[in-house]
Amino acid sequence: MPTGDDIPKPIRCISEHNWGIPLAHKLMAGYGTTIVPSMIWSPRIGIAADYDRGAALLRDLLHAVGQGLKGDDEFATCVEKTTGHLERQRAGYFILETGEMISITDEDPVEGVQRLVSAEIPAAVAQAEAAIAGENDDWLASVRADWEEHFGSFYSSALYYSFPE
């Protein structure tokens, strides 16, 4: 986990997403969620969470979403790519770097991260858990209808920034 004095190594990249923090990333940051120093930005706007629990929740939701998208080859490819990448990049913690997404709004970055941690991420986790349990069909249908926005990130092993040695 990043601290004010140390950047953990190795750092493994999961994905990037355009113009927002997608549902998949919120779920990955959903358990053991804590605000940490960013590894690339000055304010304390990083979010760390339990990798395995977040990845399990995301996989379970992808399965639930897929129940209503049988025969959708694009979704199946997305799931295969996502789950394979999550397994390859497995780590103790998932770190969500929020700087770029929060900076495109007028909101104070520190307040924006606090809102994510206290409201948006817990709400996304609660919705997903309910949907997986079969108790949130309307929400699940809305996720299916826009699955590309929620899960169609750019998965990569390469980072677009580097750390001092």
Proportion of helical residues: 40-55%
Counting H and I runs of at least 4 residues, what is the number of helices?
7
Summing up helix and strand content along with how strands pair, one would put the structural category as: mainly alpha
Taken as a percent bin, the fraction of beta residues is: 5-15%
Alpha carbon gap, first and last residue: 17 Å
The number of strands is 5
With strands numbered from the N-terminus, the spatial order across the biggest sheet is 2-3-4
Note poorly predicted spans. none
* Sequence of secondary-structure elements: EHEEHHEHHHHE
- Which whole number gives the mean pLDDT? 87
Task: Using the CA coordinates, give the radius of gyration.
Answer: 16 Å
Q: What's the assembly state of these chains?
A: single chain
What general outline do the C-alpha atoms trace? globular
